Amino acid sequence: MKTISLEIDKTLGTIRKMDIEALKSKALEGIEMLHEGNGKGSDFLGWLHLPSSITETEFQDIEETANKLRQCEAVAVIGIGGSYLGAKATVEALSDSFDLLKKKRTHPTLLYAGHNIGEDYLSELSSVLKGVKFGIINISKSGTTTEPAIAFRILKSLLERNVGKKEAKELIVAITDKAKGALRTLAEKERYKTYVIPDNVGGRFSVLTPVGLLPIAVAGIDIRELVKGAKDMEKATDIKVAFEQNISAIYAATRHALYNKGKKIEILANFHPKLHYLAEWWKQLYGESEGKENKGIFPASVDFTTDLHSMGQWIQEGERIIFETVLSVENPDSILTVPTESEDLDGLNYLAGKRIDRVNKMAELGTQMAHVEGGVPNIRITLPKLDAYYLGQLLYFFEKACGISGYMLGVNPFDQPGVEAYKKNMFALLDKPGFEKESQAIRKN
Question: 98, 351, 375, 392: least CB-packed within 10 angstroms?
């Protein structure tokens, strides 16, 4: 079986192989800290061996619950950040782009809530679900995070009106803490089906726990293949693998070498529109893991070729503080060619008979050449095809590289202290009990 591949040759005009080689010991030290559990945030390393630890019983349980929820017309996945992005990234990448327009569907529509506090969004979502038999997957470790808690209140009430309280209980699944928290308390009281968010797995690393696997299974995606791909990448990036063959270590070291040369922004560019939300997941993974102590590469993303007609100008000729990591899919599922036109008014007959993917691949290569010539180093990650197995590889590859990279920076890759700053102010402005002093201080200013 093939694996995803990593190419760094197009970075070598900015950095040298010796710059990466000089970081080898630092990258290996990062891997050792992960595997030995002696680095910062070592309480949150449950993701490290997660793919190889999932049991047949766990697979069967998730698949059984997913099959029950698939009897619904729609399933609302409630969560924010890592509680929904991994699932959404996977589902969007592996689903038919126009599935909603098909008359015969094999699974319910997945809808997302609790990832914003948009009144119009929640109102419109409630309107479309009125009178509908829908399921709810509520993902929250505490059950008190503002965005998902509001969404759950609204959708739980709506579901109970739609089908009655008794049936609603059978259509709600809680993924939460194993022993404590508001959602755990409610789930036990109402006897919801529950899954545990492991204490040692942070939200942004949780896609291969029930947090991600249950919604992904509801969408009809083979979670066993997804985990198999991740498991194979777990082996391929193990501590026993030499640096020269460990693509997660090489990616981390290359990013670090570019960072040392003043490249402060990494743009994840894809040439496949289904990978848009994979980039959103990647941005949280790296931004929340590395952006600490006034350090870290800023993660950005673009969808090519679309954004070549907007952001392409800045990337080509803007400030030279960026590098690109390009996601490429070697073999698409479809075969579609450019048709011939007798009059050739648009001048495209030179492409007649060529596959659309051939045109896209040449756009990809031409863009890389132009950006490298313009002073933008390029890393390239290639998936043999876009399926569950290779996406599982990619997810774990990025997670492992993120842990290594964080330790190379000297930060804790597994906490997020800065996230609490806005919450403190918001709670004070909303007069939440317990925030009276903060509220008084804000009003004085």
Answer: 98
Three-state DSSP at 186 gives: helix
- Is residue 288 annotated as part of the catalytic site, yes or no? yes
Distance CA 83, CA 177 (A): 13
Nearest residue to 396 via CA among 42, 24, 50, 31 = 50
Which one is catalytic: 266, 288, 364, 399? 288
Whether 58 sits among the annotated catalytic residues: the reply is no
DSSP symbol at 113: E
Token output for 417: 């202290």
> pLDDT tens across 51-66, in order?
999 999 999 999 999 9
Say which of 102, 309, 437, 444 is annotated catalytic: 309
pTM for this structure? Answer: 0.94
State pLDDT tens for residues 221-254: 999 999 999 999 999 999 999 999 999 999 999 9
Residue 196 DSSP class: E
**CA-CA-CA-CA dihedral for 392, 74, 85, 46, to nearest 10:** -60
- Distance (Å, whole) CA 242 – CA 244: 5
Task: Tell me the CA end-to-end span of the chain in Å, nearest whole number.
Answer: 62
**Side-chain-side CA neighbours of residue 259 (13 Å):** 19
User: How far apart (Å, rounded) are the C-alpha atoms in residues 259 and 253?
Assistant: 10
Q: Which of 49, 165, 423, 424 is labelled catalytic?
A: 423
Neighbours of 190 (CB within 10 A): 13
